[in-house]
Amino acid sequence: MHNRFLALCAVFLLAACAPKRIAGTELQDTDDTRAILAVMERYRAALEARDAKAIQALVSPKFRDDGGTEDPEDDLTAANIGPHLEALFTKLKDPKVEINVRRVQFREDEEVAYAIYYWNASWRMPGLNARPQQDSELEQMIFQKVDGDWKIVSGI
């Protein structure tokens, strides 16, 4: 009986020492993790609202994305992402985006964070195809602290 009591106490002690998790996730509940999730939610909402300026406000001055190609002509930067998205959004109708963040890791020495996320999106492009389109993929978004705020460096 005494041994069971000690074992039970040990289990409760270990459970109390476990890191807190954000409800419904396996993500550690820290101010920085919540800040990253908030940026990703603002990004998701801006996509659905087709708000290029809101997305541009979320990116770091060091933002760079190669668009999945080796051609530097289609690279996105902090300077050209706004006009690029505005042109894209004029062709896009009814975007719906879900983002499921699987992991957030930090490199504290450089104030950099990496978020692994799964996105699922649907949209219509009436000028290109009459049928609704959809896509989903596992991605990584990289963040950097700029003046105390987390900003997107790549991965949109």
H/E topology pattern: HHHEEHEEEE
What is the rounded distance between the termini?
Answer: 57 Å
Shape: globular
Structural class: alpha+beta
Tell me the total number of β-strands: 6
* Biggest beta sheet summary: 4 strands, antiparallel
Please tell me the overall pLDDT: 85
Runs in which pLDDT lies below 50 for 5 or more consecutive residues are 13-17
Beta fraction of the residues?
Answer: 35-45%
Strand order of the largest sheet: 3-4-5-6
Oligomer: single chain
- How many DSSP helices? 4
Q: Which radius of gyration do the C-alpha atoms yield?
A: 20 Å
Query: Which percent bin holds the helix content?
Result: 25-40%
Q: What attributes characterize this protein structure?
A:
single chain; 156 residues; four-stranded antiparallel β-sheet; two-stranded antiparallel ribbon; 4 helices
What does this structure look like?
Helix content is 34%, strand content 37%. The protein is of the alpha+beta class. A 4-stranded antiparallel β-sheet has the order 3-4-5-6, covered by helices on one side. A two-stranded antiparallel sheet has the order 1-2.
Quick summary of this structure?
This protein is α+β, with helices and mostly antiparallel strands and 156 residues long. 34% of the residues lie in helices and 37% in strands.
What layout of secondary structure does this protein have?
Elements: H1 2-17, H2 31-49, H3 52-58, E1 64-65, E2 76-77, H4 81-91, E3 93-107, E4 112-125, E5 129-146, E6 149-154
Antiparallel strand pairs: 1-2, 3-4, 4-5, 5-6
Helix pairs in contact: 2-3, 3-4
